[in-house]
Automatic annotation (TrEMBL):
Mg(2+) 2 binds at residue 67. This is Crossover junction endodeoxyribonuclease RuvC. The gene is ruvC. Keywords: Cytoplasm, DNA damage, DNA recombination, DNA repair, DNA-binding, Endonuclease, Hydrolase, Magnesium, Metal-binding, Nuclease. Homodimer which binds Holliday junction (HJ) DNA. The HJ becomes 2-fold symmetrical on binding to RuvC with unstacked arms; it has a different conformation from HJ DNA in complex with RuvA. In the full resolvosome a probable DNA-RuvA(4)-RuvB(12)-RuvC(2) complex forms which resolves the HJ. Belongs to the RuvC family. The active site is at residues 7, 67, 140. The lineage of its organism: Bacteria, Bacillati, Actinomycetota, Actinomycetes, Micrococcales. Mg(2+) 1 binds at residues 7, 140.
Length: 170
């Protein structure tokens, strides 16, 4: 299963593509889309859309895994993250690619075994799981790869269970 992980952000949006199945994952690509924080918000969103569309065209993922927006006390950050999330959802949906959401806790638990892991632990495990010589930087890139790994492992298992359940006579 090829998964594009998206760690949404308007200033920095992490992207990571992984080919994986439960217990196994290989990195295909990783990067960060950056937009100038002082730029026009609409232009920044258009730029993000173009970049995401290019990644979708180039890597042809079967699914896009996006981090679920976490509402904290900084409303401005939540709103710009939500805008970037909407661009990922829109861009993938226009291409007929399903979008799934995972919470930070789910992602941390999938790659580290603990939903309370910190960013350095997530980065270390992503590096180890993917057999990388160098840790992906910045953290947005590592988080995007973690999202892709999480879905490749958990999503594939959930899909198999759903397929089995569909075969059971009622």
């Amino acid at each position: 299963m090829r998964v594009l992980g998206v760690d949404p952000g308007l200033t920095r949006c992490g992207l990571g593509v992984v080919d994986g199945r439960p217990g196994r994952a290989v990195m295909v690509a990783v990067g960060v889309v950056r937009t100038p924080s002082g730029g026009d918000p609409g232009e920044r969103l258009v730029f993000l859309e173009r970049e995401l569309d290019a990644w979708l065209a180039r890597f042809e993922p079967e699914v896009v895994a996006v981090e679920r927006v976490f509402a904290d006390t900084n409303i401005t950050t939540v709103m710009t993250t939500a805008h970037a999330t909407a661009i990922a959802l829109l861009t993938a949906t226009k291409r007929g690619i399903p979008v799934v959401f995972h919470t930070p806790t789910e992602v941390k638990a999938a790659v580290t075994g603990s939903g309370r892991a910190d960013k350095s632990q997530v980065t270390a495990m992503v590096t180890r799981i993917l057999g990388l010589d160098v840790a992906p930087r910045p953290a947005d890139a590592a988080d995007a790869l973690a999202l892709a790994i999480c879905h490749a492992w958990r999503g594939a298992a959930e899909a198999r269970l759903a397929a089995l359940a569909a075969r059971v006579p009622r």
